[in-house]
Amino acid sequence: MKALKETHFNFPNQSNYYKGKVRDVYTIADKFMVMVVSDRISAFDVVLPEAIPFKGQVLNQIAAKFLSATQDIVPNWVLDVPDPMVTIGRICEPFKVEMVIRGYLAGHAWREYSAGKRSVCGVTLPNGLKENDKLPQPIITPTTKASVGHDEDISKEDILAKGIVSLLDYEKLEEYTFALYQRGTEIAAKSGLILVDTKYEFGKADGVIYLIDEIHTPDSSRYFYAEGYQDRQNNDEPQKQLSKEFVRKWLIENGFQGKDGQEIPEMTPEIVRSISERYIELYEKIVGENFVKADADAISSRIESNVLTAIERL
């Protein structure tokens, strides 16, 4: 199986290029961005050595679906989706925080809670919760947006005190975050899934707040299967989930959590294939249709051709 690990395009009027953990972003004439979602995969803020076939297509197509399904709540950055792995959108000045919202005690929040902490990002949690329990109500646990290294937990109070986001803007970001999570929860429920937690990124252009980046994908969200959820909780059994958490757990079991001196375990072809299959499974489960694999024989040339055609239209 072929995968797109990196790109090196030179589009007409290209004014900037940025390589993120999994996305290659090209700026055209300082007017709009071409975001290529590669097949790279990251965990614990580290890009893993092997790319995952079709992962980029899965992320881009799920994000396109959900951005379209939530544009009545908040405007988003998308102008065109010319290729299964590409989104073109307006340039926004990103807010330097990611709005993480949690409806259940899982992942990072559970790791903090199980270590004895009862306050996450300034939000107090009750005693007596188990891993994957539903929280009394969804909570927002923001993180700082790091260009390099690890994102860090931060409280609303610190965000405002440090002037990272103004009070007026932050209250709007909170309002959008709760509304988006509610919509995502409703859509997931129709597919027999629980949207456990997710994150949203926002930016501003001409004074307007836009939803940017991807939403409700397995890289930005965690999903459980709704069927049997409560039985598994009652029996202290692990939840069946569709998210990148299974990759993190595999890394933890093999001695890697992104800490200094730790080595990334070998990603065998079997591991790579299994991760790819899990991403496709989530796509089919949440989108409700079969995943159609894009032509992988000449990924770069296909993307370049589709982007050039789109640029001419824009």
UniProtKB/TrEMBL annotation:
<comment type="pathway">
    <text>Purine metabolism; IMP biosynthesis via de novo pathway; 5-amino-1-(5-phospho-D-ribosyl)imidazole-4-carboxamide from 5-amino-1-(5-phospho-D-ribosyl)imidazole-4-carboxylate: step 1/2.</text>
</comment>
<dbReference type="InterPro" id="IPR018236">
    <property type="entry name" value="SAICAR_synthetase_CS"/>
</dbReference>
<protein>
    <recommendedName>
        <fullName>Phosphoribosylaminoimidazole-succinocarboxamide synthase</fullName>
        <ecNumber>6.3.2.6</ecNumber>
    </recommendedName>
</protein>
<keyword id="KW-0067">ATP-binding</keyword>
<keyword id="KW-0436">Ligase</keyword>
<keyword id="KW-0658">Purine biosynthesis</keyword>
<feature type="domain" description="SAICAR synthetase/ADE2 N-terminal">
    <location>
        <begin position="17"/>
        <end position="255"/>
    </location>
</feature>
<dbReference type="InterPro" id="IPR028923">
    <property type="entry name" value="SAICAR_synt/ADE2_N"/>
</dbReference>
<comment type="similarity">
    <text>Belongs to the SAICAR synthetase family.</text>
</comment>
<keyword id="KW-0547">Nucleotide-binding</keyword>
<dbReference type="GO" id="GO:0004639">
    <property type="term" value="F:phosphoribosylaminoimidazolesuccinocarboxamide synthase activity"/>
</dbReference>
<dbReference type="Pfam" id="PF01259">
    <property type="entry name" value="SAICAR_synt"/>
</dbReference>
